[in-house]
Structures are given as structure tokens and as C-alpha cells.
Amino acid sequence: MIPTAVCLSRGRTGIFRRSAEEISRLTKLAWNMEALQVPHKPRYLLDFENPETVATCKTMADRAVGGFSTASLDHVPADAATNTPPHARFHGSISTKLPTNWKIHRTGYAAFRNQDRSWVFGKLLWDMDPYAYLALRVKSDGRRYTVNIQTDSIVDTDIHQHRLFTQHHRVPRPLASSSSPSQDPLSDDIPAGLADFPPPNSPILSHTTTPNPDPSGWETIIIRWQDFVRTNLGEAIEPQTSLLQSRVRSVGIGLTDRVEGPYDLRIHRVWATNGLTEEEMEEERRLCGNNALAESGGEHKLKEDTTFVETEGEGLERLKGIKGLKKK
């Protein structure tokens, strides 16, 4: 029996299926001349409405070096009674217990990301140049997660990161410490994208929290690609370079707060966007309720997260939509 392309595409890697899908996508772009204009439709990177997407991801934890943290990624079907969409559940437990290996001095992390993809022409990468934002629809338990982007760069271990600020993000504000500025979350040395909360007396760059988040928990977080911070081994490094949007290799979420105990993060979708269409807005309102993104004007009803800017003599002014993100 000679295996056909259909049979091979059903395998673990699905290289022929991915190749066919990518060729089809590129053909549509060329035929419709979509590359000549700003795309308005979303580009799904991880769509967990499809149960097969979970199988294309891999989890990581400090158990790989002898630690005791755990990480699992499971698919959860839709529940109409609670208005819950199909999604992935990233869960486990964080432990800072050190292994017997004396070379390991730090543990307490867990993460997941999509596996490396390939097609008939080699590595299959995402070209995010046509898009301004990365969007994630999540339901958070309030812990300090980070969004991790890996590109096909010269330094293979470099990761661009940004804190996943949600409306359920709860971090107590500590007192500033002059004796150890490197450990002070209020220090100017910490990039805004990795801070536990926005610095005081300055505009919030990406997201904010509200005192009364919707109890359903679902919300959409939008992060500008340019706001990601270049890191290596969990530390921001210099010189800072912009994320290579044309060669995105993987997208994922990690937890490195080193707070012992269980964690539970639900992820509906991860996608690239230039703003939400009317159809997406309907889904946004249906799933997120009071947490839904604010609507702003525009042909395609672009809308983003809430932003605060400092106005002369009036303190912080609340802005919504694309205008809120652009005005800093």
C-alpha cells in the first residue's frame, strides 16, 4: 500500500497538510492582492476551538532539570449552560523545591508553546509584519503569566516577552527598596512590558485592570508587537532589539512567578489582528460580557483595551479604542 498525501497529513507532524494549507493561503493572498493592503481579518495562531490544536503544542516545566513543578495542557469542550467556548486549560503546580543536582540553583517555572512547524520548503514561520497587535482571549486565575514569542533569530535562546495583564491580575504593590533596585518592581530598570504593574505617575502602555471584572472571567488582551521585551534565560538583555515580526517561530505562555501552589489558565484563542471586525465584536460581547473590549469608530469597528493618559491639570484621563493606544 502506497501512502497518499491525505494519509501522511493525518500523522503527527502533518507536514503535507500544513504545506497545502500554506500554499492555499499564499495563493489566495496573491489572487486577491491582499498583501497590498492592511489585513482586517484575524490571523489565528492558536485556535483551541479545534481540539487538534492542543496536540500541536508542548508543555515545559522545571521537571526537565529535576524540579518538581508540573504543567499540563488539556482541551475543554464547550459548555452552553455557562456560555463557555471550547478552550485549552493550562494547569499544574509550581514548586520551588530544589533537586539533588547541585548544579541547579533555581526552579519554579512552567510554560507551553506550539511545537516547531515545518513544510515542504523547510521551517514554517508566521509573518506578522502586516499586523500591529497580538490578541489573546483568556480566563485567568490572576497569577503573573507572561506571553512568550520566539523568532527565527541569530540567538536561538532569545525570547520576547510581555506580561499578561488581565482584569483579574492581582499583585500587591510592595514598598520601593533603595537598597536593592534590581529587585524592586518599581525600579526604572524593569521594562514596562515585564513589570508587575505599570509604573506610578506615567501612562499605562498596554493594559489596565478594573475594580469589578466580569465574574465569567473571559477577556481579550491585546498587546502591541513592538511592546515585547527581548529576554534570555528570563532576564531582559541589552541591546534591546525589536521583535522580528516576519519570522515568528512560536507563541506561548509561561509562569515564572515562583509562587508555590496550583495555577489554572484558560485560553480560547491566540491571533494576530489590526482590530476586531463586527463579527468578532459580537463574539467578544457574547463571551466576555462586561469584560468585552471597548468599541471605537472606524470602517471595521477597530477597538482595543482601555488606556490611561496623563492630561494637563486633570490627572489621568481614560481613553478607549485605537485612539487610546496611539496617544501616549
Automatic annotation (TrEMBL):
<dbReference type="GO" id="GO:0051082">
    <property type="term" value="F:unfolded protein binding"/>
</dbReference>
<keyword id="KW-0496">Mitochondrion</keyword>
<feature type="domain" description="NADH:ubiquinone oxidoreductase intermediate-associated protein 30">
    <location>
        <begin position="214"/>
        <end position="267"/>
    </location>
</feature>
<feature type="compositionally biased region" description="Low complexity">
    <location>
        <begin position="177"/>
        <end position="191"/>
    </location>
</feature>
<comment type="similarity">
    <text>Belongs to the CIA30 family.</text>
</comment>
<dbReference type="GO" id="GO:0010257">
    <property type="term" value="P:NADH dehydrogenase complex assembly"/>
</dbReference>
<protein>
    <recommendedName>
        <fullName>NADH:ubiquinone oxidoreductase intermediate-associated protein 30 domain-containing protein</fullName>
    </recommendedName>
</protein>
<dbReference type="InterPro" id="IPR039131">
    <property type="entry name" value="NDUFAF1"/>
</dbReference>
<dbReference type="InterPro" id="IPR013857">
    <property type="entry name" value="NADH-UbQ_OxRdtase-assoc_prot30"/>
</dbReference>
<dbReference type="GO" id="GO:0006120">
    <property type="term" value="P:mitochondrial electron transport, NADH to ubiquinone"/>
</dbReference>
<dbReference type="GO" id="GO:0005739">
    <property type="term" value="C:mitochondrion"/>
</dbReference>
<dbReference type="InterPro" id="IPR008979">
    <property type="entry name" value="Galactose-bd-like_sf"/>
</dbReference>
<keyword id="KW-0143">Chaperone</keyword>
<feature type="domain" description="NADH:ubiquinone oxidoreductase intermediate-associated protein 30">
    <location>
        <begin position="47"/>
        <end position="169"/>
    </location>
</feature>
<feature type="region of interest" description="Disordered">
    <location>
        <begin position="170"/>
        <end position="213"/>
    </location>
</feature>
<dbReference type="Pfam" id="PF08547">
    <property type="entry name" value="CIA30"/>
</dbReference>
